[in-house]
Design goal:
The protein is an all-alpha fold and 120 residues long. The chain has a domain of 73 residues. Helix 2 crosses helix 5 and helix 4 packs across helix 5. The radius of gyration is 27 Å and the shape is rod-shaped. The termini are far apart. The model has no long low-confidence stretch (mean pLDDT 89).
Length: 120
């Protein structure tokens, strides 16, 4: 069987086209590998979990009888240690969890440190 004269050029063109397509797709087209997609999804899920649970933690912390005193103690703690204070209080441990979530505790401390301003 004899191949057409330009077969070599066609194969080179197809190979270079495939490479160019991959470079453009992954570089500018937004394509990602399965591993990258998994990491991105896990990070988004973690962020969503923290965003949902931190306000619950802050509301529970504020609901305790001596919340003003506890919030004042929290304000006295160093900024990097406030998450640990919340963890020790137990409010960052959600129902069914065995231990406190440090990301939720840090976000809860930030909410308590900067309360939302009421809308008028």
């Amino acid at each position: 069987m004899k191949l057409p004269e330009n077969t070599n050029a066609y194969l080179w063109g197809a190979a270079l086209g495939a490479i160019a397509l991959a470079v453009v797709g992954f570089g500018w087209g937004g394509w990602v590998t399965g591993g990258t997609a998994t990491k991105t999804a896990a990070a988004a899920a973690s962020d969503a979990r923290v965003a949902a649970l931190a306000p619950i933690c802050a509301a529970s912390f504020r609901a305790q009888g001596d919340s003003a005193l506890k919030i004042a103690e929290l304000a006295k703690a160093s900024s990097w240690d406030r998450g640990n204070v919340i963890e020790k209080s137990g409010f960052a441990t959600m129902q069914g969890a065995k231990s406190a979530d440090s990301d939720v505790a840090r976000a809860c401390a930030e909410i308590l440190e900067n309360p939302p301003t009421p809308k008028t």
